[in-house]
Design goal:
The protein contains twelve helices and five strands. It has about 350 residues and is mainly alpha-helical. It has two domains: about 220 residues, HUPs (Rossmann fold, 3-Layer(aba) Sandwich); about 90 residues, Tyrosyl-Transfer RNA Synthetase (Orthogonal Bundle), CATH 1.10.240.10. The strands form two sheets. It has a three-stranded parallel beta sheet. A two-stranded parallel sheet has the order 4-5. The radius of gyration is 21 Å and the shape is globular. The protein starts with a strand and ends in a 5-residue tail after the last helix.
Length: about 350
């Protein structure tokens, strides 16, 4: 098993990122003890320049995200943790795969259509070819499994299409070059919604900071945000069905279950019939208890720029060594003379 996944270094990690992606990464990393697999996790900083961005924010966000990932449990000794920029094999392979990816495939990507909207002529070329870089990110390491959110499933299918076409066009039938990666999509229950609106995703771009729990929030802030979270006047139901038309209640119960490592059914068995006056303080305390050690490690590490840069250097070295054979074989398959 070769697990590869990336996250954009947007800075300001929140509970949605933690429960939706990072906690899965940590679990997969820890599972490799028994599965014997290998994990590659990286900051997709090259993807971040596909949209208008501020350079200073990007570099600060990249280091901050390394600190956050390590604080959450990604161990640079066990996983290969790096940023894309320090592994030039990623954009090199992307260029080679640009020869295989088709305009029509990229034109059908819903993320491109959503982000470009009516401005197709004025968005960057990088936004259009973004999924080819993403394909390179995983194909470079012969990834077998790629944990991603539901919104990235189409990009993974594209990576498979590119791999398949390249193998067909340039490799002997019995010697395909690229492994077709499988997406690993977390269950819908892992989707964490805004604390102010149970129907929209918890997001760092929500103008209201009350809508999310940030990894940098201290205990008082967390308690206050949970206390002010939107709810309805009904007590919690004892059965899961009772949450169906109650998005805010469902979200809070889901967060509780995820943080406690239990099921929604179990949480309702404990809290069914009780009001939010009892549930919210319990949820706040659980969040504080689980996030405090992460928060402390994060705050400490964030200030240690030398340590962060050393982690990135070492990760890049490991990644480049793993990437080299596939990149070389790709040049060769295309008839490009490496000398
Ligand atoms: N596009 C992904 C996202 O926005 C991030 C990403 C970049 C990625 N390269 C990747 C995810 C490779 C998985 C594998 O979430």
């Amino acid at each position: 098993m070769r697990i590869v996944s990336g996250i954009q270094p947007t800075g300001n990690l929140h509970l949605g990122n933690y429960l939706g992606a990072i906690r899965n990464w940590v679990a997969m990393q820890n599972d490799t003890v028994t599965t014997g697999g290998e994990c590659f996790f990286f900051l997709a900083d090259l993807h971040a320049i596909s949209m208008p961005h501020d350079p200073a924010t990007l570099s600060a966000g990249t280091r901050e995200m390394v600190a956050a990932l390590v604080a959450c449990g990604i161990d640079p000794e066990r996983s290969t943790l790096f940023n894309q920029t320090q592994v030039p094999e990623h954009p090199q392979l992307q260029w080679l795969l640009n020869g295989t990816a088709r305009m029509g495939w990229l034109s059908r990507m819903t993320q491109f259509k959503d982000k470009a909207g009516k401005n197709r002529d004025s968005v960057s070329v990088a936004l259009f070819t973004y999924p080819v870089l993403q394909a390179a990110d995983v194909l470079l390491y012969q990834a077998t499994h790629v944990p991603v959110g539901e919104d990235q499933k189409q990009h993974l299918e594209l990576a498979r299409d590119i791999a398949q076409k390249f193998n067909n066009d340039f490799c002997p039938e019995d010697k395909p070059l690229f492994t077709l990666p499988e997406p690993i999509i977390p269950p819908a229950a892992a989707r964490i919604m805004s604390l102010r609106d149970g129907s929209s995703k918890m997001s760092k771009s929500d103008p209201s900071d009350m809508s999310r729990i940030n990894l940098v929030d201290d205990a008082d802030t967390i308690m206050n945000k949970v206390k002010k979270a939107k709810t309805d006047p009904e007590p919690l139901p004892s059965e899961k069905d009772g949450l169906e038309a109650r998005p805010e209640a469902r979200n809070l119960v889901g967060i509780y279950a995820a943080m406690a490592g239990t099921t929604v059914e179990q949480v309702l068995a404990d809290f069914g019939g009780k009001g939010f006056g009892a549930f919210k303080p319990a949820l706040g305390e659980l969040l504080v208890e689980k996030l405090a050690p992460i928060n402390a490690r994060f705050v400490e590490l964030k200030q240690d720029r030398d340590a962060l840069d050393a982690i990135l250097r070492k990760g890049a070295e490991k990644a480049r060594a793993a990437a080299a054979p596939t990149l070389a074989a790709t040049y060769d398959a295309l008839g490009l003379v490496r000398g």
